[in-house]
Design brief:
The chain is an alpha/beta fold and 502 residues long. The protein has three domains: 8-242, P-loop containing nucleotide triphosphate hydrolases (Rossmann fold), CATH 3.40.50; 258-333 and 418-502, 3-Layer(aba) Sandwich (Rossmann fold), CATH 3.40.50.300; 345-417, no CATH class. Helices cover 33% and strands 24% of the residues. It contains 17 helices and 22 strands. A six-stranded mixed β-sheet has the order 6-9-10-3-11-12, sandwiched between helices. It has a six-stranded mixed β-sheet with strand order 18-19-20-15-21-22, sandwiched between helices. A hairpin with a 2-residue loop joins β21 (468-473) and β22 (476-482). α13 (372-385) crosses α14. The model has no long low-confidence stretch (mean pLDDT 88). The structure holds adenosine-5'-triphosphate and magnesium ion.
Length: 502
């Protein structure tokens, strides 16, 4: 048998954050010219392991070898120098700067005489690299004008410009459209052909099974399995992740749908929502499908008073509503779980508990008197209801893993006890077990008679949990299907086809 050669070996790595042991004696090795998927539930330690690799965290114990050379990174720049680049779960670009400025950030090319930043050289090199890899990007475009997929390409350019040999991608597709994700997979395969090692973290099992050559699974900070892809199927990987078989992924719901709760008529907004009309009944779970950019989040923003509608009306609980601000919407009994938890959801530096209670102070009677014990008790209850993995309500929100931050936001809107809830991509970044928990919560809310609108880019999810599925395209509703009477093909067709007579 040939001796396996590894581009990367991490041996006996342990890492604790205070009392939390995030990694326990982890040994992980990856081969050159392969995609190595790293799977595990939320909080299993995936990002932490990769942050140890990229010099963000120092391990408490263990060794790292890169191409059989021992390494001791004390800061990210040393890991980058050694050829390791990490694309973070939450992208981290300087938004007000241009593409090439980001690519060269901190490593600007200087001209000798006069001694200053040589922008033309940096633009030229960025353009050359784009051409080499077939990226369609303008080096001089400002980051703020790019789509999430293009931002990802900029991160990749940064890595490639630094001659990375090991590239870590932490949930790279979680904010990409289908098309952008496909482009990314092509690039990942190209990088593999060129002999790079790609470490690929994702909660989307289809992607993992499609791309990976090797798969390692972490559970509670320990490696529970590491093998070639061909020796595993999805069920094996999931079983290793959650430590048990996962049955009834979409729990059954038996709810009598009641009166109309929300009735929207001819709603338009300057963000591109065009004459949208629909209704959601009490106890009903309505899905909203559509391609990225179809106007679904914009509709949510218009309903919730983030932007003022330019036309149309909203009737809620039998009354005409005039919502000027999200606080009005909350007061009236609406809730919105936004899709972008970093920008519009979480207050990352604040304690978890505050993040849950922030929009709810009025509701739980804290406007006049801070009833701290009550707040704490409620937060703890809700935390255990959504099964968030935390040190308790006092822990800062940014100490939670990505998926657990999402659960925190679900807890926030459970506390609001709203009558109408909009969930925008509620399961983004959360693991298979936690997804099932969210579906169970959605079912319970339906059982309590709440009306729910679920925006999701994962069609199987909409088919698994919704009574009806609306389809948006270019700001309009172009389809309204009873889930039991339609098919994913029909919904996709409505979402993508240019002219279906509407
Ligand atoms: N900076 C930090 N301070 C304190 N605890 C942390 C910190 N970073 C991570 N942890 C804890 O370490 C554990 C592992 O977290 P990690 O972010 O590695 O999980 P993950 O596998 O990437 O999960 P996800 O799929 O949700 O992103 C969690 O319990 C988390 O709360
Ligand atoms: Mg993570």
């Amino acid at each position: 048998m040939p001796v396996p050669t590894y581009s990367l070996r991490m041996e006996h790595i342990s890492k604790s954050f205070g009392p939390v042991q995030a990694l326990k004696d982890v040994t992980f090795a990856a081969r050159p010219g392969t995609v190595h998927a790293l799977c595990g539930e939320n909080g299993a330690g995936k990002s932490t392991l990769m942050k140890v690799l990229s010099g963000v965290h120092m391990a408490d114990a263990g060794r790292i070898h890169l191409h059989e050379e021992p390494q001791a990174f004390t800061k990210p720049s040393e890991a980058i120098e050694a050829g390791i680049s990490m694309l973070y779960q939450e992208l981290d670009l300087a938004e007000h700067m241009k593409v090439y400025e980001n690519v060269f950030l901190g490593r600007e090319i200087m001209s000798a005489i006069p001694f200053r930043i040589d922008a033309p050289a940096m633009i030229r090199q960025t353009r050359e690299l784009c051409e080499q890899y077939g990226f369609r990007l303008d080096p001089e475009a400002p980051i703020s004008s790019l789509t999430p997929g293009e931002c990802q390409l900029v991160e990749l350019l940064k890595a490639l410009m630094r001659n990375a040999r090991v590239i870590v991608m932490d949930e790279p597709t979680s904010s990409l459209s289908e098309g952008e994700a496909r482009t990314l997979f092509g690039i990942v395969r190209e990088l593999r052909e060129r002999g790079l090692t790609i470490i690929y973290i994702s909660h989307r099992m289809e992607e993992v099974m499609d791309l990976a050559d090797d798969i390692s699974v972490l559970r509670d900070g320990e490696v529970v399995c590491s093998d070639r892809r061909e020796n595993m199927n999805v069920d094996d990987v999931v079983r290793h992740m959650v430590g048990r078989e996962l049955k009834d992924y979409y729990p059954a719901r038996d709810v009598e749908v009641g009166d109309v709760c929300l009735e929207v008529n001819g709603l338009s907004s300057e963000e591109g929502v065009e004459e949208v009309s629909f209704e959601v009944r009490k106890g009903e779970v309505v899905g909203m499908a559509g391609l990225v950019g179809a106007g679904r989040s914009e509709l949510a923003r218009a309903l919730f008073g983030v932007v003022r509608p330019s036309a149309g009306s909203i009737r809620f609980g039998g009354r005409e509503l005039n919502i000027k601000h999200p606080s009005d919407a909350i007061r009236q009994g609406m809730a919105l779980l936004t899709e972008d938890r970093k920008r519009t959801g979480l207050c990352a530096g604040l304690p978890c508990g505050w993040n849950i209670t922030l929009p709810n102070y009025e509701r739980i009677g804290m406007k006049t008197l801070l009833k701290l014990a009550k707040e704490r008790e409620l937060c703890e209850q809700l935390g255990s209801k959504v099964k968030v993995k935390w040190e308790g309500p006092d822990a800062p929100a940014n100490s939670l893993s990505g998926g657990n931050q999402q659960k925190l936001l679900v807890a926030r809107w459970l506390m609001a006890d709203a009558e109408f809830i909009i969930f925008d991509e509620p399961t983004r970044g959360i693991d298979v077990g936690a997804k099932k928990e969210v579906y169970t919560i959605i079912n319970e809310l339906a059982f309590q008679g709440k009306a729910q609108l679920i925006i999701s880019s994962e069609l199987p999810e909409l088919f698994g949990i919704c009574d009806r599925i609306l389809v948006m395209r270019r700001g309009r509703i172009v389809g309204n299907f009873v889930t039991a009477e339609t098919s994913p093909e029909k919904v996709m067709h409505a979402a993508a086809v240019e002219d279906n007579g509407l």
